[in-house]
């Protein structure tokens, strides 16, 4: 076994049970866990953009990213919209007060606002899934037991993990034609097709065995769910690849040995969570 593989397995062995326990706890424990992940992801984002010559506010942006999941839990997406509005108004004022015009304060405010929304705002879409706002009876994530909400949250997460693994295997075995050579030269059309096949397989099998009583979508909508979430996961992966290429970095950080940074682990999940929630909210 290679040293890199040992590192990857060690991180996964510690991280997966911790994520499962925090998700199982639900409520504000889960929201705080998502917020902490969002804050770490935002710090990596700010570090990458700083390397590209744009100064982002590290501490205020990290706090803003952290707040999105607890705010969604406490006040729904209406509260998140108010928070986002506050950021749009507050960060330009902070930038104008603390950054010289030569250092482009409005660009700093824009990057900070986008980073907090991108990481914290998108991760906050996991709150309704865990708390059973869709599919499960209202409040089913708590009153109906912790397990259904936990399993529902991990559906799009598992889908992205399997899709990523399928893309790697399919790309190595059959990859010839690049998918987006200017963004990520190593990604191939065969890898993307393999990822979508893996996504559909998870969408069919996961609810059948783990959510048999809660899953109300028929086969056509289940297949569509797998395709939609799979496509969004691929776009999320490409979006972070474009960000890293623009910033001139290979990984978002070295936080997770063998895996890169937190954003490297979240790239697809950030897009898969809102895709899953919105699909289920309108199709279930």
SSE diagram, text form:
Layout (H helix, E strand, L loop, with lengths): L2 H23 L1 H25 L6 H41 L6 H19 L2 H5 L15 H29 L3 E3 L3 E5 H22 L8 H29 L14 H22 L1
Alpha carbon gyration radius: 19 Å
User: Count of helical segments?
Assistant: 9
The dominant shape is globular
> What is the tally of beta strands?
2
Could you list the spans in which at least 5 consecutive residues all have pLDDT below 50?
Answer: none
**Structural class by helix and strand composition:** mainly alpha
Q: Going across the major beta sheet, what is the strand order? A: 1-2
| N-to-C span | 44 Å
Helix content: over 70%
Strand composition percent = under 5%
Reading the helices and strands in chain order gives HHHHHHEEHHH
Average of per-residue pLDDT values: 92
Q: Biggest β-sheet, characterized?
A: 2 strands, antiparallel
Explain the overall architecture.
The chain is mainly alpha-helical. Helix content is 76%, strand content 3%. Strand 1 and strand 2 form a beta hairpin.
Salient structural properties:
284 residues; mainly alpha; two-stranded antiparallel ribbon; 9 helices; 2 strands; 76% helix; 3% strand
How would you concisely characterize the structure shown here?
With 284 residues, the chain is mostly helical. The chain has helices at 3-25, 27-51, 58-98, 105-123, 126-130, 146-174, 189-210, 219-247, 262-283; strands at residues 178-180, 184-188.
